[in-house]
């Protein structure tokens, strides 16, 4: 089933959302996808490529909610959407995307030892405007810490690839043989073989949302409460728990320019999509500027009485282009009905890119300067060692010379006595400073 979207307003002449010396965001197009549906929670959205992405929706109304789930996919950058049917469970962001395919953990398989757990997988492949699904021969494995004996893994977190580190991270809940549930962070280089990093400081969360930009943020949900913990050293240590004033799942995307687009991660920006620019404000260093009110601009576009926005999902359409384009999938409540909407935005982060380039140039200069200073210190260290060794050598030579002068008389006497005794015996006066030379002397 194809759902063609009708653009409410196209190529809108809308002012840039901007702050002085900060990222600029331009809302280009917006369109309603469906009435009576909102984004699924937890959000099972996933992006296969620059053109193809899928997400789950739930049909409901405020008066009489009813669970009517469907999987919507776009194969043409959001120009149209297709309802995809599959008898196999679609895991979305809780799976691993490799080479344009989504691998979802399926059934537990027998492990090689008590600290090891494996799962078969279902593979989802976009093809000709459908999503093919089948049981895969590829398995995913999880190696626990030695003192942990797992019985099952609850995949209630997410998977993120950390390009700067070259590996994947996964948040998941391990259920041990005593039926104790504990959330852990896992790491994998290839996406299939996972190693446990450490226990997460969360209290048996129902759901977890893993967000990775310049740091790792894990948002946990217990009942209807959301809270987060942050790690700035790739999961080795964690901040304290901070509760969030939100009822919606979060998301966070870091652009190549270090601009961060996020939603529902800050109590200062309730209900707002926030753009964090690395450009330091005047007279303030090492701080991010915040660009909000994207929602207010969408209100102007919609020209309707909108009550709330409940969820957002952002899809990158052109990762390497300028300007960057994103499809924002979001739901609204209008007159007691959910409306699922898609909005195209353009992001001009040229100033941030220039700032990043300047920072990289400065960092390269600093590294080169440090390299030269290190080499200079190494050369000076070698010269110092040579001077010390040369001083020791000269002092040793001087001692040898003095010993030779001192010993000459005793050698002469020994040679004269040898003429009579036919034996060469040197009898010396003992001097402490020459004891180490006597065994070497004739």
Characterise this structure.
Among the domains are: 86-247, 5 Propeller (Tachylectin-2, Chain A); 370-438. Helices cover 19% and strands 43% of the residues. The chain has three helices and 28 strands. It has helices at 294-302, 350-421, 435-438, and strands spanning 2-4, 6-10, 24-35, 37-39, 46-47, 53-59, 68-74, 80-84, 96-98, 101-109, 116-127, 130-143, 150-154, 159-162, 167-176, 181-188, 193-199, 207-212, 216-222, 225-231, 242-244, 251-254, 260-263, 273-277, 289-291, 306-316, 324-334, 337-348. Strands 9, 10, 11, 12, 13, 14, 15, 16 and 17 form a nine-stranded mixed β-sheet that branches. Strands 1, 4, 5, 6, 7 and 8 form a six-stranded antiparallel β-sheet that branches. Strand 7 (68-74) and strand 8 form a beta hairpin.
In DSSP terms (H or I, runs of 4 or more residues), the helix count works out at: 3
Q: Give the overall shape.
A: elongated
CATH fold title of the domain at 86-247: Tachylectin-2, Chain A
CATH class of the domain at 86-247: Mainly Beta
- Please state the structural category: alpha+beta
Question: Compute the gyration radius: what is it?
Answer: 35 Å
Give a quick account of the main beta sheet: strands, pairing sense, barrel closure. 9 strands, mixed
Give the mean pLDDT: 80
Helical percentage = 10-25%
What are the segments in which pLDDT stays under 50 over at least 5 consecutive residues?
1-20, 283-293, 300-309
Terminal CA distance = 107 Å
Q: What is the assigned CATH homologous superfamily of the domain at 86-247?
A: Glycosyl hydrolase domain, family 43
Q: Give me the CATH architecture of the domain at 86-247, please.
A: 5 Propeller
Percent strand: 35-45%
């Amino acid at each position: 089933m194809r759902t063609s979207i009708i653009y409410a307003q196209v190529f809108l002449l809308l002012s840039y959302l901007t702050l002085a010396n900060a990222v600029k965001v331009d809302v280009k197009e917006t369109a309603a996808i469906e009435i009576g549906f909102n984004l699924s929670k937890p959000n099972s959205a996933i992006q296969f490529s620059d053109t193809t992405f899928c997400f789950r929706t739930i049909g409901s109304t405020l008066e009489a909610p009813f669970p009517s789930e469907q999987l919507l996919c776009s194969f043409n950058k959001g120009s149209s959407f297709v309802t995809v049917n599959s008898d196999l469970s679609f895991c979305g962001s809780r799976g691993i995307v490799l080479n344009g395919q989504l691998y979802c953990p399926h059934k537990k398989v027998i492990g090689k030892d008590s600290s090891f757990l494996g799962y078969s997988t279902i593979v989802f492949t976009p093809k000709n405007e459908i999503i093919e699904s089948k049981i895969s021969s590829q398995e995913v494995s999880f190696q626990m810490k030695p003192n942990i004996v797992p019985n099952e893994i609850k995949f209630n977190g997410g998977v993120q690839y950390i390009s700067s580190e070259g590996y994947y991270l996964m948040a998941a809940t391990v259920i041990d043989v005593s039926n104790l549930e504990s959330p852990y962070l896992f790491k994998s280089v290839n996406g299939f073989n996972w190693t446990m990093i450490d226990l997460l400081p969360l209290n048996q969360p129902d759901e977890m949302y893993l967000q990775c930009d310049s740091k790792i943020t894990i948002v946990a949900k217990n009942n209807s409460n959301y809270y987060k913990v942050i790690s700035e050293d790739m999961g080795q240590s964690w901040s304290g728990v901070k509760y969030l004033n939100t009822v919606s799942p979060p998301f966070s995307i870091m652009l190549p320019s270090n601009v961060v687009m996020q939603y529902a991660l800050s109590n200062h920006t309730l209900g707002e999509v926030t753009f964090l620019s690395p450009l330091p404000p005047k007279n303030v260093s090492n701080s991010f500027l915040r660009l909000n009110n994207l929602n207010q601009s969408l209100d102007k576009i919609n020209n309707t009485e909108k009550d709330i926005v409940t969820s957002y999902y952002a899809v990158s359409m052109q990762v390497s282009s300028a300007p960057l384009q994103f499809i924002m999938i979001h739901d609204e409540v209008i007159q007691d009905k959910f409306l699922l909407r898609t909005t195209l935005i353009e992001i001009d982060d040229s100033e941030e890119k220039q700032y990043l380039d300047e920072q990289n140039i400065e960092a390269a200069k600093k590294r080169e300067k440090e390299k030269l200073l290190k080499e200079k210190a190494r050369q000076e260290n070698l010269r110092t060692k040579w001077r010390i060794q040369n001083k020791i050598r000269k002092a040793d030579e001087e001692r040898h010379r003095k010993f030779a002068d001192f010993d000459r008389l005793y050698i002469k006497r020994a040679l004269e006595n040898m003429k009579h005794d036919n034996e060469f015996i040197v009898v010396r006066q003992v001097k402490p400073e020459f004891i180490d030379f006597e065994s070497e002397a004739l």
